[in-house]
Specification:
Distance between the termini: 45 Å
CATH class of the largest domain: Mainly Alpha
CATH topology of the largest domain: Transferase(Phosphotransferase), domain 1
Low-confidence stretches: none
Strand content: 15-25%
Number of strands: 13
Radius of gyration: 21 Å
Family: Belongs to the protein kinase superfamily. CMGC Ser/Thr protein kinase family. Lammer subfamily.
Largest sheet: 5 strands, antiparallel
Order of helices and strands: EEEHEEHHEEEEEEHHHHEEHHHHH
CATH architecture of the largest domain: Orthogonal Bundle
Strand order of the largest sheet: 1-2-3-5-4
Shape: globular
InterPro entries: CLK_kinases, Kinase-like_dom_sf, Prot_kinase_dom, Ser/Thr_kinase_AS
Helix content: 25-40%
Catalytic activity: L-threonyl-[protein] + ATP = O-phospho-L-threonyl-[protein] + ADP + H(+); L-tyrosyl-[protein] + ATP = O-phospho-L-tyrosyl-[protein] + ADP + H(+); L-seryl-[protein] + ATP = O-phospho-L-seryl-[protein] + ADP + H(+)
Structural class: alpha+beta
Number of domains: 2
Enzyme class: transferase
CATH superfamily of the largest domain: Transferase(Phosphotransferase) domain 1
Keywords: ATP-binding, Kinase, Nucleotide-binding, Serine/threonine-protein kinase, Transferase
Number of helices: 12
């Protein structure tokens, strides 16, 4: 493969960086992920390559997960060549002053996200790091529409950007794993981490489903549902938004998490680290109220779907396939 011409830097992360390049053989722009030459990042890159090749074999048409074109090792840096896509949902939200997506767009994005997850789960794979940064719009094109919920945050807030196309693809399979019995190490980026992961109860596919629930709320509101950096506060936020954690889960916590529980209940607000922390939890609305504030039509369907995705007990959480049959996805867009 002769990639010549580096055009621009598309992104940077702890793993290394992503460059936009021109592939002379295929005559197309590609994205090359250049991984730092450090053992743990190289290992994650090799896992990602293997997972992408497996997914590519089964993903006929290649419209669910990002397509890998090639990979090579250059001076101890693993370089993975991908098709070039548009911005991540997170970047789009950020550049749009964290303003929400219209509900019909959330529906289309949610459907594709769940189709990708159902496809992965069928192959017994668990992504484990679903978040808006790891979901890319296929196209960078957008339109500007009037924003009726005008805030005084910035003078150009009379319009908001809306992606022209709802097509998305999931990226970053460096933490993807095959389903095994009782995996209990910590997975997921904090805001999207399921309760069973925090409580050390072991996790499986359903941790991806929890992340999807958090992502859908974020697309509707523009902001992450659980903005926190510590476990007890995170669990308290969950209780505030979704109601009390089931006692049977709190009773089985592992030794690292038992400090968050007292007499079968969450040790809150007693165990809080600060008054700010208690305030941060108190100001969160219940899930129903949060969605009603931001969604005009089909709020009822969405709330019902989210209650299935964000069920505490992973064995009761709906599956990706069940979610796709939910009435929220049966509506046609206007």
């Amino acid at each position: 493969m002769v990639t010549d011409k580096i055009h621009s830097k598309m992104g940077e992360g702890t793993f290394g960086q992503v460059l936009e390049c021109w592939d002379r053989e295929r005559k197309e722009m590609v994205a090359i992920k250049i991984v730092r030459g450090i053992k743990k990042y190289r290992e994650a890159a090799m896992i990602e390559i293997e997972m992408l090749q497996q997914l590519g074999k089964h993903d006929i048409g290649g419209n669910r997960c990002v397509q890998i074109r090639n990979w090579f090792d250059y001076r101890n840096h693993i370089c993975i060549v991908f098709e070039k896509l548009g911005p991540s949902l997170y970047d789009f939200l950020r550049k749009n002053n964290y303003r929400s997506f219209p509900i019909d767009l959330v529906r289309e994005i949610g459907r594709q996200l769940l189709e990708c997850i159902a496809f992965m789960h069928d192959l017994r794979m668990i992504h484990t790091d679903l978040k808006p940064e790891n979901i890319l719009l296929v196209s960078p094109d957008y339109v500007k529409v009037p924003d009726y919920k005008i805030s005084s945050r910035s003078p150009n807030s009379y319009f908001k950007k809306v992606p022209k196309s709802s097509a998305i693809k999931v990226i970053d399979f460096g933490s993807t794993t095959y389903e095994r019995v009782d995996q209990s190490y910590i997975v997921s980026t904090r805001h999207y981490r399921a309760p069973e992961v925090i409580l050390g109860l072991g996790w499986s596919h359903s941790c991806d489903i929890w992340s999807v629930g958090c992502i859908l709320v974020e697309l509707c509101t523009g902001e992450a549902l659980f903005q926190t950096h510590e476990n007890l506060e995170h669990l308290a936020m969950m209780e505030r938004v979704l109601g009390p954690l089931p006692m049977h889960m709190l009773k089985r916590v592992d030794r690292h998490a038992e400090k968050y529980v007292r007499r079968g209940k969450l040790d809150w607000p007693v165990g809080a680290t600060s008054r700010e922390s208690i305030k941060a939890v108190m100001k969160l609305p219940r899930l129903q109220n949060l969605i009603m504030q931001h969604v005009d039509h089909s709020a009822g369907d969405l709330i019902h779907l989210l209650q299935g995705l964000l069920r505490y007990d992973p064995s009761e959480r709906i599956t990706a396939k069940e979610a796709l049959r939910h009435s929220f996805f049966m509506r046609r867009s206007h």
